[in-house]
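Class, look over these structure tokens:
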Amino acid sequence: MTDSKPPILARPWRSRVPNEIALRITALRETFEEAGCLFARHKDNGEIFDQNSMSGHVMSDFRAQVQGDPQRFIEVFKELNCYPDVVSLVEWSDWLTPSEGRRRFDTLFFVICRDEPPVVSHDEQETVQDSSFTSNEFINKRNAGDVMLPPPQLYEMLRINRFPSFEYFRYFLFQRARNYPTRRWLPVPLRCSDGLLSILPGDCLYPHALTDHECDDHDDTKDKLLAELTEEWKNKTIADHIFETKDVNCLYWLSKDKCEGAGHWLHVMCLATDVFPGEGHLMPIMNK
């Protein structure tokens, strides 16, 4: 495995804790605050902490303390004689909001695997409902308009949808993490008269040199319709890794194959079947 790291892990912070550990602790804290899940291990034997072994009242009190003061998070583990389960959080992907966005986020996605469903409860602030679905069920609900998934979450859900079983997914997850670094993705927008195309790394149209503050917008596409431009690219067989958005709730994935959802054609443009996103990852797959 190379030593290459995404900027969010490589940049210096005013902390003695390595970035890889600090960001995992932050992810665990936010999960506890917003979803009520405490991922921990016992200090004495390293076994997974069973949240069901504690009364709901005690855990709710701990959660309220952390919501009031994030510094209390580590104190919770001390009182439980546990430590944060940072070793189980596995890097999955990293997405940076395009520079034209009103608010930008550099988001590192982690995955944690458990054989049993965790204890979940919404906080009526950041989260308002808790439900459990498979990736395919989630995508179907999104296509039916029941839930909204921003492009990165939809892309990753479609990628997870490739795996036929939890065991296969877990094996792939750890093998990829051991052998490949995570690379940050910065989508490059192409505005059309009726929507937006986002070019992703690996596409032949993706800029070779791109800074965090460049959107590299193409003026020659602004007066064209999405359908006109995508048809033009299909004929030239040049588009490899692009998705198309007509509105916030409607994402079109461009490929030879077509899937219908939410009254729209999910039709994308992966014309080059040998295009892979790199870092040992897999391309997304449409609904099964």
